[in-house]
User: Fold these one by one.
Assistant:
Number 1:
Amino acid sequence: EAARGGSNASEFVRVRSYTVSITYDKYYMVPRMWLFGYDEDGTPLRPAQVFEDMSSDHAKKTVTLDPHPHLAGPSHASVHPCRHAIAIKRIIDMMEDGSETSKHMRPDQALFLFLKFISSVIPTVEYDFTMDFDT
């Protein structure tokens, strides 16, 4: 019936949701994103389900399950921060090199750039990018 346009429960897209927190990693001196996932019914996701939402290039490599530094309880998915600074610097350099003027990225744009970087690792998480990244 769904194929014929009828009203059927299978037509609804079931979604997962994530609680997202960002901490500052003192060792690497960069932001670090933490995610804790829930299924459609609010039940915490199993580790295998969390990795299904991650880029296959990053799952279980740069995205790992680790204890959250400020929240007790089960481990959270985290994008390991060891390469954040290099990757973000590369993005900034590309943006500034493409600029026709000698403008530089403003400090207030850093968090939005970080979220843009994270979206390449976790493509299933959608953000609202209403801010322009023109330098």
Number 2:
Amino acid sequence: MHVLEPASKMLGHHWKRLAIELGVSRHVPKIEAKYVRIREQALYCLLLWEQTAGAQATGRRLIDAIEACDMKRTAAHVRKVVDPKSGKKKKKGKKSGKKKAKKK
């Protein structure tokens, strides 16, 4: 899933709370022992979740778990990565009532 790396950059120390929500908390000690940097720990946690959850490891499930951890900014960021169109508002043009004539 292409969203794991951008998500891991936003998690910081909160990746452990997310690990609990995603059901991979038993791996936390192993992750902390193997990786020193927080970003690497967060990414490896997400990769383990993806491996263990299989088809259940979806962008929607990840966003739901992040929201359950009350990380609104991170959830919004991940939502934009998962569905780039969701964050964009449609621009409304002015309607002048006049129709443009076709050029020949």
Number 3:
Amino acid sequence: MKAVNLDAVNLNPQWLSYWAIYGCLCTFESLLGGLILWLPLYYEAKFCFLIWLQAPQFKGSVLIFDSAMKATFGSQKARSLKNTPMKSASHRDSEVLNKATEFLQVHSPEMYHALSKESKSSAPRLY
């Protein structure tokens, strides 16, 4: 719940709220597992509901999170997620790639040597 309310620019509020709602739905299903089997077309309705939550055109997860989840669970920062700015995916991907490249440039030689020593010592002799 706290992650959805953060002011971080690079978080996707639709997916964070989707997973919060999905977690509540799974909890509800596990508590009422046997009774749900008796509801006609439950799984078809659940499928349509999940598609509606995920579709970026509808932003169903944000609507439900803003209206029902915040009222139920409360929040310290009650702010709408509909207009939260978000970095483009390509910008986030390039940031991740840059960080990974920096990490590998610093740590890859020592990791390579450690792995090669370990593989030589633990490799079975076939001759």
